[in-house]
């Protein structure tokens, strides 16, 4: 049994708790979220607190945390206004462009243009998708759940229903995704990322005779 170091998370500083989370909950897939406001301004930003939820309805969630000054993200404001967004896959080929869109641009700046990306039209929603991404989901907003008292360190859970999907021919075949062609990247702690290049298989176990 390992000798454990105990941390009372309820008594440490917010930034220290954040470092523990991002250093331990790894690797984290990246939701590269495209959104549009009621004025027509578009936004593109990456979020690594992200996962799928269920398949009936097909849905996913991501969690935009507030800025250090306590302000909410432009992405969240846009989604509240137009009730839709896209989630685009960031892979090895798009790592630098994805990272560029993480810069703290003012609301009127178009991150698609800043990163040299194509704001491709979606089929069923207003929000644009990343034309260069090998996989994109069009999502309709299901709910926004506030977490925390607001201000710095607090955030929201954004739940979306997937209503349409786009895949490049290289990654999609007979309803299955070819991970070796998708080449996704994921976040680790600090400024570190990782590739998916060491895969192993484990079959689901069957119940034994004593179960």
Please explain how this structure is put together.
This protein has 211 residues and is of the alpha+beta class. The chain has helices spanning 14-24, 74-82, 95-100, 111-114, 179-182, and strands at residues 28-29, 31-36, 42-47, 50-55, 58-62, 84-88, 119-120, 129-130, 135-147, 155-167, 172-173, 176-177, 185-187, 193-195. The model has no long low-confidence stretch (mean pLDDT 96).
Gist of the model:
It contains 5 helices and 14 strands. By secondary structure, the chain is an alpha+beta fold.
What structural class is derived from the secondary structure elements?
Answer: alpha+beta
Count of DSSP-assigned helices: 5
How many E-type strands? 14
Lateral strand order in the biggest sheet: 3-2-6-9-10-5-4
Q: What is Rg?
A: 19 Å
Overall geometric form: globular
Average residue pLDDT: 96
Helix content: 10-25%
Major β-sheet annotation? 7 strands, antiparallel
Query: Secondary-structure element order, as H and E?
Result: HEEEEEHEHHEEEEEEHEE
Features:
3-stranded antiparallel beta sheet, 16% helix, alpha+beta, 7-stranded antiparallel beta sheet, 5 helices, globular
Topology:
Layout (H helix, E strand, L loop, with lengths): L13 H11 L3 E2 L1 E6 L5 E6 L2 E6 L2 E5 L11 H9 L1 E5 L6 H6 L10 H4 L4 E2 L8 E2 L4 E13 L7 E13 L4 E2 L2 E2 L1 H4 L2 E3 L5 E3 L16
Antiparallel strand pairs: 1-13, 2-3, 2-6, 4-5, 5-10, 6-9, 7-8, 9-10, 11-12, 13-14
């Amino acid at each position: 049994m390992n000798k454990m170091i105990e941390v009372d998370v309820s008594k440490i500083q917010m930034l220290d708790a954040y470092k523990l989370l991002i250093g331990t909950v790894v690797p984290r897939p990246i939701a590269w979220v495209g959104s549009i406001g009621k004025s027509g301004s578009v936004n593109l930003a990456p979020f690594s607190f992200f996962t799928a939820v269920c398949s009936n309805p097909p849905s996913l969630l991501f969690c935009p945390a507030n800025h250090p000054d306590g302000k909410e993200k432009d992405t969240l404001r846009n989604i509240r206004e137009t009730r839709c967004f896209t989630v685009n896959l960031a892979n090895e080929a798009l790592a630098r462009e994805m990272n560029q869109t993480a810069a703290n641009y003012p609301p009127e700046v178009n991150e698609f243009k800043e990163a040299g990306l194509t704001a491709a039209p979606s089929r069923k929603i207003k929000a644009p998708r990343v034309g260069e991404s090998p996989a994109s989901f069009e999502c309709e907003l299901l709910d926004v759940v506030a977490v925390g008292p607001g201000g710095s360190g607090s955030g929201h859970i954004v739940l979306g229903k997937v209503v349409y999907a786009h895949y490049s021919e290289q990654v999609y075949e007979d309803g299955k995704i070819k991970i070796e062609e998708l080449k996704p990247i994921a976040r680790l702690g600090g400024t570190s990322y990782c590739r998916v290049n060491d895969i192993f298989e484990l079959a689901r176990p069957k119940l034994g005779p004593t179960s």
